[in-house]
Design brief:
alpha+beta, eight-stranded antiparallel β-sheet, 6 helices, 33% helix, 27% strand, globular
Length: 218
């Protein structure tokens, strides 16, 4: 119950950052029967009221170039990393070993990161991130127990291209989620955000790295 409560409050904090909707609506959507109950729980988690949190969390990043794009369903192999995003290197090393041992390079269509949590909201040690590869078709693969098969759903996606080091991806997130998408009035699907890596860090200078940030919309 504590885990569910924490995730609901963190999702509420994200909605406060990127949506100009009544706080009461966010409270009800987060499972609270009243504005007052939500405010007490939110203050206990974040040390401030929802109204003040919204005022202090206004987006400041530039609006990135965003395109709308229809995406097919994709079969993925994923490996969960829990902790600060910058410590996910060992998970990527494990994924590369899997690709090599299973001879999967010819089947890999995209290299992806699946991001569940906002580092401005969730404690660093609890951040969830899936290292993932998308495969052509759904090939039969014998996976070690720490790896799982999954799907990226088909649908209409908002896609922003980020150029620069991974450490500055946050600016693209803020501009996209906090400024572009609210202006267009679209509703985000209740799903993690997908990062598609177009360059390899071992072959590309950080300032030349290209990453697509993909958000499915309803």
């Amino acid at each position: 119950m504590g885990f569910v409560r924490r995730l609901r409050l963190e999702q509420a904090a994200l909605r406060l950052k990127i949506r100009d909707v009544p706080i009461t609506d966010i409270a009800l959507r987060s499972g609270y029967s009243s504005h007052e109950a939500f405010t007490r729980a939110f203050r206990s988690r974040f040390g401030t009221s929802p109204r003040r949190y919204r005022a202090q969390s206004g987006p400041s990043a530039a609006v990135p170039n965003v395109r709308m794009e229809r995406q097919p369903q994709r079969c993925i192999i994923r490996l969960r990393h829990v902790g600060p995003y910058e410590t996910c290197g060992p998970a990527w090393d494990a994924m590369e070993r899997l690709i090599e041992t299973q001879a999967l390079w010819s089947s890999v269509s995209h290299v992806l990161g699946v991001c569940f949590d906002d580092p401005d909201i969730t404690d660093p040690q609890r951040l969830r991130y899936d290292v993932a590869i998308a495969l052509e078709g759904a090939p039969a693969v014998a996976l070690p127990p720490e790896f799982t098969m999954g799907w990226i759903p088909a649908g209409e996606y908002a896609v922003a291209l980020h150029k620069g080091p991974y450490e500055t991806l946050h600016d693209t997130y803020v501009g996209m989620l906090g400024r572009f998408l609210p202006f267009w009035g679209v509703e985000l699907a209740a799903e993690p955000i997908v990062e598609r890596y177009l360059t390899h860090p071992a072959e590309t200078a950080p300032e030349e790295s290209l990453t697509e940030v993909m958000v499915r919309i309803q």
